[in-house]
Design brief:
This protein is about 20% helix and about 30% strand. The chain has about 260 residues and is of the alpha/beta class. A seven-stranded mixed sheet has the order 6-5-4-3-2-1-14, with no helix packed on it. The longest helix has 11 residues, at about 205-215. It binds zinc ion (ZN) (2 copies). One zinc ion binds near residues 63, 65 and 147.
Length: about 260
């Protein structure tokens, strides 16, 4: 499995000279295995997706908050001649198509999801499922409006994508069991402990809580994602230097990991 980090920022994209190292584009991770290209979320990071050459392209959305779908309307893959299968949980009484059309229709955007060169096939998510030889399982996150935590497994390797996740004692136990012995967990660590005290209920977690999941799940490694837009490179580097576990790091746009 090859994992390419395309966007790591949470909530809203950032820009400027002090956001160059970790990157300012929002949530998007590309997973390639078994001739499949699977995008986890379609934030603005998807705009810089490499051409994988893969005919089999899928998008798994954790949820449809704007930072996770922002890149879709202008993504190069939508402007290419191929079929794209997009999956997300139907929520709030709305199908995924209805959720996406909130953004992709006038007056917010001039064209709908069916008016692209690519053929976007939108599926209401039903797990577990397989995409080629990749098996996809999931659990519900704890996040305002809901979000899906995914586990992708192929060839004896796996990763867990746990973004837009706020810890509770019960959810931590569930996530630890779900992540058992995985190779990599991508974990939402938007806040410092100090910030979290003021941001309870916003649907995001902390480094400390992530490290507990890493330790107790037996996972091999962890990358922190969904960086707070107010955390510039200096702040993120400081947070990264304070990490007490060498298996953990902060995700940077452009990183490529093989598991
Ligand atoms: Zn988000
Ligand atoms: Zn969200």
């Amino acid at each position: 499995m090859k994992i390419t980090v395309l966007g790591v920022r949470g909530s809203i994209p950032t820009d400027g000279a002090d956001h160059l190292i970790y990157g300012g584009a929002t949530a998007c991770i590309l997973v390639e295995a078994d001739g499949q290209a699977i995008f986890l979320d379609a934030g603005s990071g998807i705009l810089v997706a490499p051409d994988t050459g893969s005919e089999q392209v899928s998008i798994l959305l954790s949820h449809t908050h704007i930072d996770h779908i922002l890149g879709l309307p202008l993504s190069p893959i939508m402007l290419s001649d191929r079929r794209i299968d997009l999956y997300c949980e139907a929520r709030g009484g709305m199908s995924v198509r209805e959720q996406l059309e909130r953004l992709m229709s006038p007056p917010l955007w001039p064209v709908g999801p069916d008016e692209y060169q690519a053929r976007l096939v939108i599926h209401d998510l039903k797990l577990p499922m397989n995409i080629g030889a990749i098996s996809v399982t999931g659990i519900e996150s704890n996040h305002p409006g809901g979000s899906t935590i995914y586990r992708l497994s192929a060839d004896g390797h796996s990763l867990v994508y746990a973004t837009d996740y706020e810890h509770t004692a019960e959810k931590q136990r569930e996530l630890i069991a779900f992540s058992r012995d995985t190779d990599l967990i991508l974990y939402d660590a938007q806040y410092t402990e100090e910030e979290y005290a003021r941001m309870k209920g916003f649907g995001h977690s902390t480094v400390e809580q992530g490290l507990t999941v890493l330790r107790e799940s037996g996972a091999k490694s962890m990358l922190f994602v969904h960086h707070d837009p107010r955390h510039n490179d200096r702040k993120l580097a400081e947070m990264e230097q304070e990490l007490s576990d060498s298996r953990a790091a902060f995700a940077r746009a452009g990183m490529v990991i093989e598991i």
